[in-house]
Structures are given as structure tokens and as C-alpha cells.
């Protein structure tokens, strides 16, 4: 919720921030664009910083470490007497968002049972969308300062509740603290659960990874066996952002204005926000029933159809054709696009990042994937206006649609199905590791198609 609220803040806040009757300092168009743009840049830095943090401090402590800076960042914005204070606050919250968006999927991937990992792994995205919706609705009644103080209140329950949960058993095993790992697993699975088989599986997977590890984390990343899951994760992040989702969300109001839509553009924005929120909950219900790949297929096809439709609509409008009869089309296409994105390409790249990256390099590889995602976010949002200026808004939509077609082929050929499989099973299959006959001769190899 805190991450979603932070991401959505500029959309309602900038209007009142630029109003000199409300704000004591001047916010120009240029500094206003940086209030929005500095966050993905700081998120990129957070992604880079988060990798070493989850390895050395642990998954839980890293997530916990973001709570206080989140509160400070919002208080800085709320009490701002100069635009520089707002920018520092946004940069600090962006840094925390980058760290959280990396550490949350890793924490969930390592603690949740395979049968429900999809459903529970999508909940952060669903709550993120609640945060976005809360920000939009509160932004209707509060100015930028009041909205920031509301933002400062959100991390308080998060800070208190984080103390109640354990560190991940896998991190304890990687630090040779098996007793702590057993206690954490017992807490997670329930007092009466027999956790020994799962603990043995985690220890074995860690020993395998240690045997194949090199002395350098960077060399580990470039190891052929590790490179494949990392490239799949990067590919999913690339196609997530190059579907144009952030351009669509950040510029919703302007797009509806230029479409000459017959429906009020602010109402359209709220409709898109509500749909985004509902669709993610639908995805949480379906993901452990249909699997990851089916949802990615549905998601991609929906985005291709709607982006091509939007492109054609704007092409006709720009050519002077009468489109007043189909003034409802942009909103309908937007709704289907957002539903499609939220069903698959929105949450699944983050979920799969926590699933397919091998345990030994999970921190550094997740760091690379998160930093790459934020870089793509920054590039798409910052260049969208330039792209539409050079090839027209119809060309921009067609371009994003074409990238989605390539994304569909990528999913078909390269992305594995991870539904219902333990992290150890996924890792063995991804790395094509052949077991040595010595200590594990009595264990039958697990065979499944991915």
C-alpha cells in the first residue's frame, strides 16, 4: 500500500502544488516533472542497493529498514517550504520503493508454500493498487501537503507488524543457522506441521549451490546456468514496461483529452484505477489454478488487441475522420488494456523473479532485475511525450503493440511454468543440474516439464 501510494502521489498532488494560492513556493513545469521523474530514478538506486542488503541484513530486516525512511520522506514533503524539500522527500521514498519492490517478492517466494505461492505472491500488487486508489480518492479532498501526511501515517502499522514475522528459513540456512531456520519454518507452517523434510530440501539446495558457486558474485551471475533464469527475469521486466503501461497510467488524463472522449477525463482516470484494482484480485484467484504462462498469454493478447485498436482510433482522428460515433472506444480499450496488464504482465514478472532466480544469486540477480525494471520505467515515462511528438500518438500505441507481439513470442519460447513447484524443483530444472551419485543416490530425480 505504501509503495502504491508513493507511486500515485504526483498525479493528484501536482495540481494543488502548482497553485500559488495553496503553495507558498513556486513549482514550475520543469521542477514539477522532476517531482514525478525523480522517483523511478531513485527506485533504480534502491534496486541496486537492495541486492546486497537482502544478502547481508536478511530479507526481513531489509524490508523493515524501509519503514522509517518512508515516514521521514513523507514528513519532508508534508512540511516542505521549498521545492527542494519535496524533491529530497520523493527521492528518499523512491529509494525505499526500489528496495521494497526487490525484497518483498524474494521474501514471499522463500516463505510461502508452492500450492499458494501464486495467490499470496500477487497480494502485494493487489494492495499496491489499493494504495493507488486510496491516493486518487484522498487526492480529491486533500491538497498535496495533507496527502503527504496521510502517506506518513501508512508505514506506521507496517513498521509495527513487521516485528511479528520471522526471517526466511532459506536466509538462515545460508548463514548456517539451522536451528533458527527450523523455528522460522515452524512459525510459518504451524506448530503441528512436520517441517523436517522441507528443511532438508532447503539445506540440500543450498549445499548444491555452494558447490557450484565461484568466489565472485558477479562471476556467479554470468555463470551459464545462472544466466538463463536471470535473462528470463530481465525479459519479463522489459516487456512489462515496454507494453507502455506507465505511459498509459501517467498520461491517462491527457490521452483522454486528446481523444476528445465523450466522458469526463477525471472520471475516466478513476474508472481505470478501479478496474486495475479489481483485475489484480481476479489474477490472485486464477494464478494457482491456470498457471503463470496461461495468464501471461491472456494478458499479452489483450494488450496487443487494445493497443492496435487505440492506435487505429487515433490514426483516424488525426486524419480528420469523424470519430464522434465511437467516442466511447478509448475508455473501453483502456479498461481492457488495464485488465489484461493486471491479469498477467503487471504482477507475474515480480512473482517469478522470486521463484526462478537461484538461491545462491537471488539477492544480486533480483537487484539487477529490479534496477533494470526501474530504468525501463524511467525511459518510457520520460520519452513518451517525445515519442508522440515524433511519430504521433497512434504511432506510439502501434509501437507498444508491436513490442507486445515480440513479448508473446518470448513467453511462448522461454518462460517456464512454475505453478505448484517448490523453489528447489524450479532451481534444479532451470539450471539443468545433474545430481552426483554420492550422497543423493537414494533420492529419485524429480522430472517435470517446464
TrEMBL record:
<protein>
    <recommendedName>
        <fullName>Facilitated trehalose transporter Tret1</fullName>
    </recommendedName>
</protein>
<dbReference type="GO" id="GO:0005886">
    <property type="term" value="C:plasma membrane"/>
</dbReference>
<keyword id="KW-1133">Transmembrane helix</keyword>
<dbReference type="InterPro" id="IPR003663">
    <property type="entry name" value="Sugar/inositol_transpt"/>
</dbReference>
<keyword id="KW-0812">Transmembrane</keyword>
<dbReference type="Pfam" id="PF00083">
    <property type="entry name" value="Sugar_tr"/>
</dbReference>
<dbReference type="GO" id="GO:0051119">
    <property type="term" value="F:sugar transmembrane transporter activity"/>
</dbReference>
<dbReference type="InterPro" id="IPR005828">
    <property type="entry name" value="MFS_sugar_transport-like"/>
</dbReference>
<feature type="domain" description="Major facilitator superfamily (MFS) profile">
    <location>
        <begin position="1"/>
        <end position="419"/>
    </location>
</feature>
<keyword id="KW-0472">Membrane</keyword>
<comment type="function">
    <text>High-capacity facilitative transporter for trehalose. Does not transport maltose, sucrose or lactose. Mediates the bidirectional transfer of trehalose. Responsible for the transport of trehalose synthesized in the fat body and the incorporation of trehalose into other tissues that require a carbon source, thereby regulating trehalose levels in the hemolymph.</text>
</comment>
<dbReference type="InterPro" id="IPR050549">
    <property type="entry name" value="MFS_Trehalose_Transporter"/>
</dbReference>
<dbReference type="InterPro" id="IPR005829">
    <property type="entry name" value="Sugar_transporter_CS"/>
</dbReference>
<keyword id="KW-0813">Transport</keyword>
<dbReference type="InterPro" id="IPR044775">
    <property type="entry name" value="MFS_ERD6/Tret1-like"/>
</dbReference>
<keyword id="KW-1003">Cell membrane</keyword>
<keyword id="KW-0762">Sugar transport</keyword>
<dbReference type="GO" id="GO:0015574">
    <property type="term" value="F:trehalose transmembrane transporter activity"/>
</dbReference>
<dbReference type="InterPro" id="IPR020846">
    <property type="entry name" value="MFS_dom"/>
</dbReference>
<dbReference type="InterPro" id="IPR036259">
    <property type="entry name" value="MFS_trans_sf"/>
</dbReference>
<keyword id="KW-0325">Glycoprotein</keyword>
<comment type="similarity">
    <text>Belongs to the major facilitator superfamily. Sugar transporter (TC 2.A.1.1) family. Trehalose transporter subfamily.</text>
</comment>
